Amino acid sequence: MEILQNISLKPYNTFGIDVRATFFINVKTIEELQLLSSEPFFTGNKKLILGGGSNILFTKDFHGLVLKTALKGIELIREDTNHYYVSVKAGEDWHGFVLKSIQQQWQGLENLSLIPGTVGAAPIQNIGAYGVEVADYIEEVKALEIKSGELQSFNAAACKFGYRNSIFKQELKGKYLIYEVVFRLNKIPKYNITYAPLKAALQEIDQEKLSAKHISDAVIKIRQSKLPDPEVIGNCGSFFKNPIVEEAIGQALLEKYPQMPNYAVGQGAMKIPAAWLIEQAGLKGSREGQVGTYQKQALVMVNHGNATGKEAHSFAKKIITKVNDTFGITLEPEVNIL
Ligand SMILES: Cc1cc2nc3c(=O)[nH]c(=O)nc-3n(C[C@H](O)[C@H](O)[C@H](O)COP(=O)(O)OP(=O)(O)OC[C@H]3O[C@@H](n4cnc5c(N)ncnc54)[C@H](O)[C@@H]3O)c2cc1C
């Protein structure tokens, strides 16, 4: 196992922030990590688990050891009447796996096409898009406890999945390295095209002939039309979560802003699109120095050049303040700020 030293993390985060890590390891097998986990070098250093770096904003150098998940492999491990069970190693590219699942007719993940990042990170914030969350298809998450080097299995209930949330983002944050995820995918398709723009994009397709590939292609097209490609302009996707407020607060806002989009999410709560709040606060497409919000999607913060993490973080705080001053709602970052 090669230990790299003092390396730039710029190629390893999609916002393109140039910070350095003291030590950096490409983790290719879980066995080598287990062996390393009792070494003083390992226990004595602060650790950061890194996938594709598409949900991280670095604000400073990382004085410790970066464990980059580079474990590879996709395997159909069993099947029953209705499902395929597919085991995927953490370092696999998420979108690459989705495309493979479509090709193999392992159904369910098509709406999650083109989300950047690795398979190992997908359960962390329970990635979701176009009406589907990865939690719906997770059978088991296999993880190594960093402190003990022990391997543990979490079923879906133990992962405590929620909206862009899981136990790995809360009480177990940074404590486990997910090295493998087992997915439970459908044999008989149950397509979800409830999201209006997706439905509209698929209107031309004969519903009898609708396939996962059609849905994936449509999702890719929609995403490409409204989200910036990190290869072209640095960003980490939606910077903030869509706030969930009490029904009464939502209704009061609706009286003032009748055009405010909103979604009932049960238990007397309402979800409001953060993009709308940012846009109404006058910040869509705004820019300060090397950072700004994307012109086509206010929820995405972009790096116009050589932005620093501090600059981006301070811009994010300004967005939070302005939205709070305007609507009395405090936005919460979806991105991990380090
Ligand atoms: C253009 C763009 C569009 C996006 N669209 C969406 C979207 O539609 N829906 C959505 O949900 N997200 C979206 N995202 C966010 C991002 O793609 C996801 O959060 C993705 O799962 C992050 O994967 P990653 O491998 O890059 O994780 P990283 O950014 O490397 O890590 C994210 C967090 O997970 C931890 N982590 C990573 N891997 C592991 C592991 N194996 N074990 C334990 N901890 C780990 C890290 O320490 C960090 O805290 C988007 C991002 C971009 C740039």
Task: Give short descriptive properties of this protein.
alpha+beta, 338 residues, Uridine Diphospho-n-acetylenolpyruvylglucosamine Reductase, domain 2, 20 strands, globular, Uridine Diphospho-n-acetylenolpyruvylglucosamine Reductase, domain 3, Uridine Diphospho-n-acetylenolpyruvylglucosamine Reductase, domain 1, 3 domains, 23% helix, binds flavin-adenine dinucleotide
Describe this protein's structure:
The structure is a single chain. This protein has 338 residues and is α+β, with helices and mostly antiparallel strands. The chain folds into three domains: 4-69, Uridine Diphospho-n-acetylenolpyruvylglucosamine Reductase, domain 2; 74-226, Uridine Diphospho-n-acetylenolpyruvylglucosamine Reductase, domain 3; 234-337, Uridine Diphospho-n-acetylenolpyruvylglucosamine Reductase, domain 1, CATH 3.90.78. The protein has eight helices and 20 strands. It starts with a strand and ends with a strand. Bound molecules: flavin-adenine dinucleotide. Flavin-adenine dinucleotide (FAD) binds next to β3, β8, β12 and β13.
CATH topology of the largest domain: the name is: Uridine Diphospho-n-acetylenolpyruvylglucosamine Reductase, domain 3
Order of helices and strands: EEHHEEEEEHEEEEEHHEEHEEHEEEHE
CATH class of the largest domain: Alpha Beta
Number of helices: 8
Give a short overview.
This protein has 338 residues and is of the alpha+beta class.
Architecture blueprint of SSEs:
Blueprint (H helix, E strand, L loop, with lengths): L3 E5 L11 E8 L2 H7 L3 H4 L3 E4 L5 E2 L4 E8 L4 E6 L3 E7 L4 H11 L23 E2 L2 E2 L4 E8 L5 E5 L20 E11 L9 H6 L10 H15 L7 E5 L5 E3 H10 L6 E4 L2 E3 L2 H7 L6 E2 L2 E3 L6 E4 L5 H19 L8 E2 L1
Parallel strand pairs: 2-5, 3-5, 4-20
Antiparallel strand pairs: 1-2, 6-7, 7-12, 8-9, 10-11, 10-12, 13-19, 14-16, 15-16, 17-18, 18-19
Flavin-adenine dinucleotide binds next to strand 3, strand 8, strand 12 and strand 13.
